[in-house]
Input
Amino acid sequence: MTVPSVDCPKDFISWQGYCYFIENKDLSFFDAHENCNSKDSELVTITSQSQNRWLFELLRIYGLSRHHVWIGLHDIDIENTFQWLDGTPLTEGFFANSQPDNSREEEHCGMYWGDIGSEHWNDAPCSVKTKSICLWNHDRSNYLTYTRMICSYSYFVSRIFAYF
Output
């Protein structure tokens, strides 16, 4: 199987047809989500062990293997039913032993668990401020560009009709 070539936006790193951005700013889960959206991307969805290992290796290269790093996983809607921000349910997770544990009943967002320096995940309070990984998808970017064009056109047309 040939992986399609993709031209990533500036500062994004290509792997297996997708583009990733390591955000070094410390942000809450929701601020990290908004930050990724501002880059036409989303907090990363991890769908395979190979992707999980590759991302952790990337964190190691960036010197972040001992940092907590947000991924796009949460159980905000239903406790202990994790899903990705795009609504896809978690089918294969890479949580550390004894995780997720919803400590103090306030841990609802997923992250790489920097305390143990491995590619395992932890659930944490969404308010924790830490690094994050954004995933840019060419198809999503085209959709957003198209949506912006339609909205701009609609605004322009509504402004014309306002004068009649």
Summary: Confidence is low (pLDDT under 50) at residues 141-164. The chain has three helices and eight strands.
